[in-house]
Amino acid sequence: MDTVSSKPVVTIRDLAGTLGLSHTTVSRALADHPKIKAETKLRVRALARELGYVPNGSAQSMRGQHGPTIGLIIPDIQNDFYASIAKTVADAAAARGFQLTLSVTEDNPEREMDDLRALIVARAAGIIITPTASPKAQTLELLAGANAVQLVRQDERLPHEAVVIDDYLGVSAATRHLVTYGHRDIAYVGTGTDLSCGRDRLAGFRAVMIEHGLNPDRVALGQPRPEFSHHAVHGLMSGSQRPTALVMGSSSLTIGALKALRSLNLQWPEDVSIVGYGDPVWFELMGSGLTTVRLPVQEMGAYVTSLLLARTELPRVTGGDACPQPSRFAPSLVLRGSARILTAG
Amino acid sequence: MDTVSSKPVVTIRDLAGTLGLSHTTVSRALADHPKIKAETKLRVRALARELGYVPNGSAQSMRGQHGPTIGLIIPDIQNDFYASIAKTVADAAAARGFQLTLSVTEDNPEREMDDLRALIVARAAGIIITPTASPKAQTLELLAGANAVQLVRQDERLPHEAVVIDDYLGVSAATRHLVTYGHRDIAYVGTGTDLSCGRDRLAGFRAVMIEHGLNPDRVALGQPRPEFSHHAVHGLMSGSQRPTALVMGSSSLTIGALKALRSLNLQWPEDVSIVGYGDPVWFELMGSGLTTVRLPVQEMGAYVTSLLLARTELPRVTGGDACPQPSRFAPSLVLRGSARILTAG
DNA sequence: TTGTATGCGTTATCAC
DNA sequence: GTGATAACGCATACAA
What we know:
The structure is a homodimer. Chain A is 43% helix and 15% strand. Chain A is of the alpha/beta class. Among the domains of chain A are: 1-54, 434 Repressor (Amino-terminal Domain) (Orthogonal Bundle), CATH 1.10.260.40; 167-295, Response regulator (Rossmann fold, 3-Layer(aba) Sandwich). A six-stranded parallel β-sheet of chain A has the order 2-1-3-4-5-11, with helices on both faces. In chain A, strands 7-6-8-9-10-12 form a six-stranded mixed β-sheet, sandwiched between helices. In chain A, α2 (23-30) crosses α3. The longest helix of chain A is centred in the C-terminal third of the chain and has 17 residues, at 297-313. Chains A and B meet through α4, α5, β2, α6 and α11 of A and α4, α5, β2, α6 and α11 of B. Chain A binds a DNA duplex through α2 and α4.
C-alpha cells in the first residue's frame, strides 16, 4: 500500500510502549520466563509477530561471553575434501544453533589473518582452521587466545589440538602397492615440504622406495594446483626415461596429471599406472576407475567438530602450552583400475 | 609462565585506565581520529597490542544499521556450481571487509528458515539465497524485509531481484544438438517441476522435440540426486526400446547417469550419446570428454555479489512490490566427445 | 587536543 | 507478576 516503507525496526521497548508494559516484562515474556502471566505472554507474542519484531543479535551477544558463530578457515572450498568438511561442520553448527562463518584463504596469509581477526572480533565461539604454511605472527597470537582446532595441517607453534591425516601411511601404501605390482621406476608428484603433510607424504614415498632398493629421487614438488602437476607430469612423461608409474600427492595434482596424460595421448593403466590422492565421486567414473588413497573425510569432519563443540559448551580449558599430539586418521587404498601389474620387460 | 591465564578480556576502558586517559580518547586513537596527538595514538596502540586488545564486534554493530556479514544460503556446498559461487562471494566479501555466513539447506525448508532467521537476527548486511521449492511462510516474511537477492531459483512471491540461468536455452540447445546429429529417440532425465528452473529445462527439451516431430515424452523427473538418475537411466537403458541419446538436467543427475551406464557396461558415445548439465573440471577428463551445457558460474557469482553489495552500501531502496524480471544468464554448449552423429540404421 | 555524557537493545538484579 | 535501574563495550555530540 504505502510506497516508502523502510521498516521502522521494532525493539522490545516499542512493543512495551504500545502494550502499556515495561520492556523488562516484554523481554521476559519473549524468553518464556516462568512467572509472567500466560495471557501477558500471549499478548506480547502476538504483537511481536504482528509488528515483525526480531531480536537484535548484537545486543544479545554483548552480554554473553561469545557470539553465536563458529568459524571455518580453509584454503579452498572448491576442493572436494574441504567442501565435504564444510558440509559436516555446517550440519553440526546448524544442529546446535550456531552459524557458520566461512573463510577461504587461498593459502594467503594476509587473508588468513584478516578473516581470523574478524572472527575474533565477532567473538566466535570456536574456530576450525587449516593454517597456511607461514601464518603471520599476528595470526598466531590471535589464535593462541581462542578456542580453536587445527585441521589437516598442524602448525607446531600453536597450542591447539590437531586433527590430521596420516599422510605417511597414505602415500607409502600407494607406493607399496605399485612396487608389489612390479613397478620399479616410480615417480612421485606432490606438494612442497613447507608443510608437515607435504613432508610426510614425500617421506612415505621415499621410505618405501629405499626399502626396496629403488630410486627415491624421481620426485616433483610444487604448489598444489593442477597447473603444476600438468607441467610436471608432462615433463616426466615426455622424457626418454619414462617412469612406469605415478604416485600423486593431492587431489588437485591428480587432476593436472590426468590432463597431462590426456594431452600426451597416454592411456592408463596401459602406458602408465597412476594412484591418486583423495577420492571425489568422479575418480570412480574415470576410465576403468582410478586407484586412489581415500581420505576419511566424514570421520575427520565429525571429529573436529565434536572436539570443538565439546569445549565450546564447557568453561574454557586452556590445556598447557605444550603442542599436543595430533589425532591422526588413517587413509585407505581403494583398488580400482588405474594401476596394473607390470610384466617383466 | 602462569598456569591459569583465562584471558581477562581487555576493553578500551581498561586501556584508558592504565594510560590515565579517558576511554573516548582511546576510542579515537584506535580509530585514527585526525585530532588526537600522534604520540597519544602511539602509546594507545602500543598498549593495545601489548595487552592483546580486540574490539568487541557486538558493541560496534549495535550502533550501526547492520552487522558485518553477508549471508549465502544454498542447497549444497559439495555441488561444483555452488562451491564456485561460494568462492566468488567469499572473495568479494573479504575484499570489502565483510564476513561470509554460509548456510547449507539441503533443500530443507526448516533449516532454510532457521538459518535465515539467524542471519536476520545478526542484522546481516545482505543475503544471497537459492530458495527451496516451498519456503515456509515465515521465511518469506523474514526475507521480504531484508536486503536480499535470489540466485538460480526465483520464488515469485519474493520482491527481490533474481539472477538465474536461462535453463530453457541450455536444455533446448543440448537437445537440438542431438537432433542435428540425427538422434530421434532422445530421453530427458531432469529435476522435478516444482521449481521454475526444472520446468524451464523440461520445456526446453519438449519444445525442440515437438518442433521436430519427435516424441517429447521420454522423460524421467525426480530429485536432483545421483541415486535418482542412476535408477532412472538404468531403467531407461535396460528396456527394449533404448533411447539413442540422453539429455541431463543437472550435474548431480549427470553423475548418476554415468554410474548407471558403467554398471550396465554401456559405452558412450558408442552405445548412447549423452549431454551433461554443468561443467565441473572433470567432465573434460571423462573418456573422450563429456559434451555438456556450461553454466556461466563466474559471471553469475560476480553479478549477484555486485548487485547485493551495491545496495548494501547505499541507503536501502525498496523497489516496489512487483516481482522484478530476473537477470537471465545464457549457458553455452561445450562440444566434446560424448555425443556422436547417428548414422541411419 | 582531550574529557563528559548519552545511547544503541538486551538481560539481570533488585525492588514492589 | 511486574517494573525501575544498571550494565555490557563502543562511538559520538557536545563541552572544555
